[in-house]
Amino acid sequence: MAFLSDRMARIKPSPTIAMTTRAAELRAEGRDIISLSAGEPDFDTPANIREAAKSAIDAGQTRYTAVDGTASLKQAICAKFQRENGLDYDPAQITVGTGGKQILFNALMATLDEGDEVIIPAPYWVSYPDMVLLAGGTPVIVECSLEQGFRLTPEALEAAITPRTKWLILNSPSNPSGAAYDRDQMKALTDILMRHPDIWILSDDIYEHLVFDDFRFVTPAQVEPALKDRVLTMNGVSKAYAMTGWRIGYGAAPTPLIKAMAKLQSQSTSNPCSISQYAAEAALTGPQDYIHDSRAVFQRRRDLVVAGLNDCRGIDCPTPQGAFYVYPSIKDLIGKTSAGGTTITDDEAFANALLTETGVAVVFGAAFGLSPHFRISYATSDAQLSDAIARIQSFCKGCS
């Protein structure tokens, strides 16, 4: 009898974490490493949020809370959805978890049976397919090419739907591509879903506030109110307020789903950290100028990275609408040999050679379901980004 369960063979370790770990190991060995693999803002959490956490500690708010969030945080989340998205929810339709990842995991575990299908546009965040597999479902991957702007088309969505389809996962703006759906593009998808009343939509809005130029963010339940009763809208404080380590995510959905997710959470992690919940409440109800300021920094960094990568021989880097990633193509480098003697057979070989020969850590595109690409996170300083781009340019120039 095997000790580990069969379900463990369905999934793989996170490639993004693996690359970040490898970069840290090389740095510990004394190598000059620039890691562009982690999706984490390099800013400090705003002062008012930190102060709220300290006040919560001093006030003794260090005990268990309700399993899926305090009443006051749920009220703040309801107010956020109404204020920013025009969506009306009551606290019974809100759940709070230990990061956005737990919200997604709980929803899939609470709803999927063996053979249920989940449509996932690629490129996708690395955890989506593995969560589906752990829950016993079947990921249905729909490739969305650079030529399509890395966005799911209505025709491709319609073609992917079967009688076993239970969920569509949408992430806008996207990790890893930064692609986002405007109102017309989102409406074209919701029109298809209106014709399929058994399909639910899991909308991952974690990068909502990181959109650039004149782009206007929209979420499915906002664009098509008739779908609201089968949408789970997930969000969190990690990206918008530089609170990755605080581990607070939240979701809004019809009450029966929220209750099922709370039941699951009650038998797994129970409540999120009490102190983090009070900090998240301060983030949602306090001054919002931090978002505007950080967005401007990220847009400047995006422009720096896009321009620099497009000056690299063999790289084609589109300009993303949001998040803090770029997802360039290396199609024209496949088959070439690096100056260090590595044949670039695919994007994983490219990423490994780049790390070994230049000390720049990126994540290869196959990890996100669409090759030949790689992902750069530009959530680091301008100086680090400029240095990294110069190294990548040198690496590409040396390929022949």
Automatic annotation (TrEMBL):
The keyword Transferase applies. Its EC number is 2.6.1.-. This is Aminotransferase. Its cofactor is pyridoxal 5'-phosphate. Keywords: Aminotransferase, Pyridoxal phosphate, Transferase. It comes from Paracoccus fistulariae. Gene3D superfamilies: Aspartate Aminotransferase, domain 1, Type I PLP-dependent aspartate aminotransferase-like (Major domain). It comes from the Bacteria. InterPro entries: Aminotransferase_I/II_large, AspAT/PAT-like, NHTrfase_class1_PyrdxlP-BS, PyrdxlP-dep_Trfase, PyrdxlP-dep_Trfase_major, PyrdxlP-dep_Trfase_small. Pfam families: Aminotran_1_2 (PF00155). One of its GO terms (molecular function) is transaminase activity. Belongs to the class-I pyridoxal-phosphate-dependent aminotransferase family. The keyword Transferase applies. Residues 32-392 form the Aminotransferase class I/classII large domain. It catalyses: L-aspartate + 2-oxoglutarate = oxaloacetate + L-glutamate.
